[in-house]
């Protein structure tokens, strides 16, 4: 017998054997970023370790946690731990408003420490003898975490997320820190050690007029730094990490 031709076969096809449109494959989800997750977890650990070491060696935790250094490192520990979790679980990254705030505050911590508080010629030096624990904590809180935050921003974060309005929004915390430090100092007994956290905020040394001048100078410097971060975030290159071996749907053959 003759074999049926394709046209004959098609005439006798039933709806059950007809071609059924193939359902579109689901979009490939964004993959985990294990290196970014591990690095950010280490940054959070470094900040937390510095805080714990300082706490162990401190006899006045109220005074310790009044420092901008400690508060900014707490923000780094929380935000980087959160970002590490999101990178590990393939979730969207944190808002640039949050990551930019953490970057600005910890940058302020590092820059003010190295160029003002550790500089004998600045007029606001806070150099003193430190115990081994204080020395380790000092390096973690003022050097390691600021540099690590900058590395994460430059290498592990996509550019272009910072907006111009973020620059002045980020200043809310540094500006609120000023009345916090002054009110706390006013409530303490004159002569109390560490009554004011920093020499440029010490009313006994500077007077309220001097404090006002310092606040304007530092405030303008912090705003300039925030604007610089926004500008650099827009012009810096995107350093892409390794891509998934499976291409997104419709982009071409498997690689």
Automatic annotation (TrEMBL):
Phylogenetic lineage: Bacteria, Bacillati, Actinomycetota, Actinomycetes, Kitasatosporales
InterPro entries hit by this protein: Pr6Pr-like (IPR049713)
The protein, known as: Integral membrane regulator
Transmembrane segments: 35-53, 65-84, 96-116, 136-158, 170-188, 208-232
Keywords for the protein's UniProt record, in alphabetical order: Membrane, Transmembrane, Transmembrane helix
Polar residues bias locations: 1-16
Region (Disordered): 1-23
């Amino acid at each position: 017998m003759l074999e049926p031709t394709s046209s004959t076969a098609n005439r006798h096809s039933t709806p059950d054997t007809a071609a059924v449109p193939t359902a579109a494959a689901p979009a490939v989800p964004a993959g985990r970023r294990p290196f970014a997750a591990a690095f950010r977890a280490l940054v959070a650990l470094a900040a937390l370790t510095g805080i714990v070491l300082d706490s162990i060696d401190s006899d006045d935790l109220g005074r310790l946690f009044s420092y901008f250094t400690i508060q900014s490192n707490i923000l780094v520990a929380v935000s980087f731990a959160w970002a590490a979790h999101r990178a590990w679980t393939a979730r969207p990254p944190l808002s640039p408003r949050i990551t930019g705030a953490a970057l600005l505050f910890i940058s302020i911590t590092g820059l003010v420490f190295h160029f003002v508080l550790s500089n004998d010629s600045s007029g606001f030096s806070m150099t003193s003898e430190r115990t081994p624990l204080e020395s380790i904590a000092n390096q973690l809180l003022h050097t390691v975490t600021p540099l690590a935050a900058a590395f994460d921003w430059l290498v592990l974060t996509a550019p272009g997320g910072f907006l111009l309005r973020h620059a002045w929004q980020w200043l809310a915390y540094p500006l609120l820190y000023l009345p916090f430090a002054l009110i706390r100092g006013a409530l303490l007994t004159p002569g109390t050690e560490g009554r004011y956290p920093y020499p440029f905020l010490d009313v006994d040394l500077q007077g309220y007029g001097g404090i006002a001048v310092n606040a304007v100078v530092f405030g303008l410097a912090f705003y300039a730094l925030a604007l610089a971060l926004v500008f650099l975030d827009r012009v810096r290159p995107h350093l892409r990490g390794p891509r998934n071996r499976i291409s997104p749907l419709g982009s071409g053959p498997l690689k």
